Amino acid sequence: MIDHSDRILSHKEGTFQGVGALDLYYQSWHPDGKVRAILAIVHGLGGHSDRYSNVIQHLIPKQYAVYGLELRGHGRSPGQQGYINAWSEFREDLGAFLQLIQTQQPGCPVFILGHSLGAVIILDYILRYPQQASLLQGAIALAPTLGKVGVSPIRVLLGKMLSRVWPRFTLNTGINISAGSRDQQILTAYAQDTLRHTRATARLATEFFATVDWINAHAADWQLPLLILHGGADRVALPGGSAIFFQRVNCQDKLRIEYPGAYHDIQNDLNYPEVMADLEGWLEQHLLSQVVQLGRGNAELEFPNS
């Protein structure tokens, strides 16, 4: 959890309207003074926006604002746990979230980060909507679930079979909590986290696998600066999937870092300081390149107030 009493940090929360007029929860953290850039975070399956405290505490002193939404059926957002009618709901909800950020912080550079399932959501959005995505400065995929996943093949098969006849049928994913991090304190916090869940429905399963197939088939169309960070010992989203996707991306501005021995929640694993340093370095590089490009036409360049 974040210490909101810190003088350099202000915290806001609210809702925005997603598909079907669903009021989805979001929260944001802001530094004092000018915001240099914004990082929008999309969490993974069963997660929520409180899970990224290391990212927030690292970037706020660097004058970044951080926004996190909670997907439908997750955290403090309404909806059946782990259920969607169609993947387009995730996609359009994300579009509405980005529009909210651009309305609140007009003209400020925006990066987007997705973790696990959230990485699949942002990759799909950017590939489906290249024109809207061109407004973003870059995308970061943490442990994207783009290949084999640590879910029993029997559970996967059952989900596919029931998707048409019983789409809301729910199963526990069966993913062991210990696969998230090597830090015992983190695992204890996970076990006590009342906002966390481990549920997935038959319809979500079929929509997820179809979306992953589509993303992999269209990887060559990728145009945005891309950073992939993956744990080498990730048992939830095997790192081979992101390696194959990375190879298929033709865009020259791409970087993939694999951390030997690291688990799935690399932002909360033992090596998180290294991960945060790599994330910050990449953000700073791409923020600087944007300033240089804008500065060619502007002798003086000012970022908007937060």
Overview of the structural elements:
This protein has 306 residues and is α/β, with parallel strands linked by helices. It has helices at residues 53-59, 87-104, 117-128, 130-133, 153-162, 184-191, 202-217, 239-248, 272-295, and strands at 9-17, 23-31, 37-42, 64-69, 110-115, 138-142, 170-172, 199-201, 226-231, 254-259. It has one domain: Alpha/Beta hydrolase fold, catalytic domain (Rossmann fold). 36% of the residues lie in helices and 19% in strands. The protein has an eight-stranded mixed β-sheet with strand order 1-2-4-3-5-6-9-10, with helices on both faces. The longest helix has 24 residues, at 272-295. The two termini are 23 Å apart. The model is unreliable at 1-7 and 296-306 (pLDDT under 50).
List the helices and strands and how they pair.
Elements lengths: L8 E9 L5 E9 L5 E6 L10 H7 L4 E6 L17 H18 L5 E6 L1 H12 L1 H4 L4 E5 L10 H10 L7 E3 L11 H8 L7 E3 H16 L8 E6 L7 H10 L5 E6 L12 H24 L11
Parallel strand pairs: 3-4, 3-5, 5-6, 6-9, 9-10
Antiparallel strand pairs: 1-2, 2-4, 7-8
Helix pairs in contact: 1-9, 2-3, 3-7, 5-7
